[in-house]
Amino acid sequence: MGYNLLAGKRGIIFGALDENSIAWKVALKAREEGASFTLTNAPVALRMGKINELAEQCDAKVIPADATSLEDLENLFKESTELLEGNLDFVLHSIGMSPNVRKGREYGNLNYDWFLKTLDISGLSFHKVMQVAEKLDVMNEWGSIVALTYIAAQRTFPDYGDMAQAKSVLESIARSYGARFARLKKVRVNTISQSPTKTTAGTGISGFDVFYDYADKMSPLGNASAEDCANYIVSLFSDFTRMVTMQNLMHDGGFSASGISEDIIEALSK
Ligand SMILES: NC(=O)c1ccc[n+]([C@@H]2O[C@H](COP(=O)([O-])OP(=O)(O)OC[C@H]3O[C@@H](n4cnc5c(N)ncnc54)[C@H](O)[C@@H]3O)[C@@H](O)[C@H]2O)c1
To answer: How far apart are CA 132 and CA 126, in angstroms?
Structure first.
């Protein structure tokens, strides 16, 4: 049962690949809360994933767009506002990919063409989404734009590779564009720094299971699930968070504020 938190709101959700995706859970919650939206993903992901199943459940249309292509983004915004019959109140950027991580390149042996791709897909695409939205003037006043990030932007994690730099860029863009969009249209822009989550992107990082368990033991509340994350995102799309902007919001069960936990002391004392 929903609370009608997003009744009458329209949006675009990027990044639902399969039922484990954070964006997938956000789509289901946003629908339950009364929103209408379009779903989008890269053309190759649309062929491999199951997005049509989700589209049916949410009564949403799917529009392909590579988030690094300005042309695709323009088409996506134009089609979405036509289909939804109005301008947008929210956008979710739930996109991440590093060819270096995917192909197991060590941090001292990065392929720089791939590094640029990582930055483009996982960082700059957030700027592109907002620049196109601004130019087409498709955001409503008091709209909300959210992107997903990870604490590897601030602290090092082995095997997160060049994604750490991409997340730093992403979080910095949220501050700079947040200041601009607030002045222009009172649109808020935030990133959510989520716990390790068992998704295609998450489990693609080597050693993921170990740092998933470590984070779970370090966080007083345990790891935040994808469903918890979706609830938080819905609150950020709602009118209850209108003055929150330019923030990197930790959604991690307390991980980021913990030095060591009793569970870790116990595990290491054995
Ligand atoms: N899973 C985790 O542990 C975790 C933790 C913190 C933050 N995040 C972030 O959450 C977001 C969503 O990831 P997820 O964990 O749900 O995994 P996921 O693999 O389900 O989602 C990643 C999405 O990015 C899309 N994508 C890749 N290249 C694209 C492109 N060029 N254009 C458009 N879309 C593209 C993929 O198709 C996929 O749908 C990412 O930003 C990720 O870094 C994940």
So the answer is: 10
